[in-house]
Amino acid sequence: MKKQFGFIPYGGFAPGGVTTGHKPGSAHYEGRAVDLFFKPYTSKTKKLSGWQVAQWAVLHADEFHIATVIYDDRIWTRNGSYQGWQVFVPEYGDPKNATIRHLDHVHIDVF
Question: Which residues of 83-102 are buried (b: 16+ CB within 10 A; e: fewer)?
Fold first, then answer.
């Protein structure tokens, strides 16, 4: 991804997993997820860049063992790939929060 897009600010990742900041059972705690930030999320340029990364991740899902991509109130899952992008409904937190809704970052997790 870095070769394709250059450096993208990221978080929610640490080898072996992070210890806080995500919903229970999150792949972040197992070191299988990363969040790539596109701020400010109200910028059309940032939103377009986020969608380019999200679509690239879906296109390369087999190659990189990607299981889930979430961005901009949408979710793509490997198991539901035949359905394409679906509406993302947060399972926790404030449903108006930009970060909870993944408006400001692309979430990618692997299996």
Answer: eebeebebeeeeeeeebbbb
Q: How many CB atoms lie within 10 A of CB 108?
A: 28
Q: What is the mean pLDDT of each run of 10 residues along the chain (111 residues)?
A: 95 96 94 98 98 98 98 97 95 93 98 96
Do the Cβ atoms of 40 and 89 come closer than 8 Å? no
Helix (H) or strand (E) holding 29: none
Enter the tokens of residue 40: 């400010």
Q: pTM for the full model?
A: 0.96
Strands 10-11 and 33-37: antiparallel
